Amino acid sequence: MTANVAKIRTRTGSTIMAVVKADGYGHGAATVAKAAVAAGAGWLGTTSVAEASALRDAGLAVPILTWLHPSGIDAEEAAAARIDVAVGSVDELGALLARAPSILRIHLHVDTGMSRGGCPRARWDELIDLARRGQQAQRGRVVGVMGHLPSADRADPEANAPAVARMREARRAVRAAGLGSPFTHLAATSGTLNDTATHFDMVRIGAGLVGIDPSGIMAMHGASRLTAPIVHTAAVPAGAPVGYDGAYVTERATHLSVLPLGYADGIPRELSPQACVEIHGRRYQLAGRVSMDQIVIDTGAEPFPAGTSATVFGPDGGATPAIWDWARWAGTIPHTIVTGIGPRVKRIIA
Ligand SMILES: *Cc1c(COP(=O)(O)O)cnc(C)c1O
């Protein structure tokens, strides 16, 4: 993770926010946050005030911003714990200002072309005017403005240009309303790695911390290794059906080993037949369907004893599958692989 933050640093002089939503992309929010701050991240980001408070409880003192807020915003808790909140609609801002202490720090989240969160362009004036009146009435203060890039994974500055223009326009509008010069942030990992025009004052990095460049252009360092011990090994003859529906049938006499990981632990059930794990420096294919808590490996002539460690994915390269391999085998993106690792999998901090 330290190497990933360093790599990000080579691309931007802007402040780095470590986004640790979804339990730090499956790696443990406080663990990722501490490593990222130690490596130079100046801010943290999450999607609820409760998650941010947990980071404060874990001893993290840097500024934290929250957005999305599925359970609403506890304005008193946010203000007391020095947690900045982003609001993306006139209604949300109105409700917040009714309870906001004067010290509550607010970022206006504007839609920069995604039509997901963020205040639509047509209502920016209303949003900014409401924020200005709130500030006059000692109900919070506007300190930032944020957007989000819809197409940064294409690694094409032209695809980002409309969002960058929108972001500048929003910053100008906030300034023009007399709210000072807002801390402005737009880019996530891909924008940061591929397009300096998107950087503004701060970049928000999630995927990049755990080794994913969503644009697939920069090689980042895998931040985790998933291993499991073989729990059962058997010799089987040619023609043996394996697992549910006998979806795999052995072509020759072979050995099969069971790993105690299944779709409940985040092994995608939608795997191509190429999926494999690494044991003692060699790759072995999965045989048959992924069960809820087991997968079967065809190890050929090798009768690996129970207790032998298999690596599902890891950062090493060579025979060890990477999270990108699993994403390809499952027809998905690496994010869903790392965030899908279930709670039964024990996390050990190296
Ligand atoms: C998740 C998220 C990020 C981080 O995106 P990555 O591509 O994982 O770096 C940044 N900003 C917002 C608003 C997000 O929701």
TrEMBL record:
What InterPro entries does this protein's entry cite?
Ala_racemase, Ala_racemase/Decarboxylase_C, Ala_racemase_C, Ala_racemase_N, Ala_racemase_pyridoxalP-BS, PLP-binding_barrel
A biological process (GO) of this protein is: D-alanine biosynthetic process
Entry-annotated residues carrying N6-(pyridoxal phosphate)lysine: 21
Query: What keywords sit in the KW lines?
Result: Isomerase, Pyridoxal phosphate
What cofactor does this one take?
A: pyridoxal 5'-phosphate
- Which stretches make up the Alanine racemase C-terminal domain? 223-350
Q: What is its EC number?
A: 5.1.1.1
What pathway does this protein act in?
Answer: Amino-acid biosynthesis; D-alanine biosynthesis; D-alanine from L-alanine: step 1/1
Q: What positions constitute the catalytic site?
A: 21, 244
Q: Name one GO cellular component term.
A: cytosol
Q: Which reaction does it catalyse?
A: L-alanine = D-alanine
Q: Which residues bind substrate?
A: 116, 292
Role noted for this protein:
Catalyzes the interconversion of L-alanine and D-alanine. May also act on other amino acids.
What the record says about family reads:
Belongs to the alanine racemase family.
Q: Report what the protein is called.
A: Alanine racemase
